[in-house]
Design brief:
This is VOC family protein. Helix content is 25%, strand content 39%. By secondary structure, the protein is an alpha/beta fold.
Amino acid sequence: MDIAIHGSFLPQTDPEAAIAFYRDLLGFEVRNDVGYEGMRWITVGPPGQPVSIVLHPPAVDPGITEDERRVIGEMMAKGTYAGILFSSDDLDGLFKHLQEGNAEIIQEPTDQPYGLRDGAVRDPSGNLIRIQQRV
């Protein structure tokens, strides 16, 4: 059986800010940008890689209650709702670039006892992005 990761989902609350972060700051391609009833689903991914991230409006599933929507909004504001893990072969250079782009740095690159160097930022919607580099 051959299984590969095709994509992942992260909520976004501001499509233009999401595009500015993922395309303009991280250098991802915008592969799809679909609007429907005032909402947008934006698919981005690193050039030359088949995996994608779908940046979607939060809490739009029909089965979600108003209380659940409120909780999701609160969790996104705190950065505890969604996250993703990236890797880089130049973590320090990437973090310098992110700082120059005014990204919200959560953790500066740090050597970890388990053989990785990693750091963390938040995207404009509050999603936690951990970025690691093998030491």
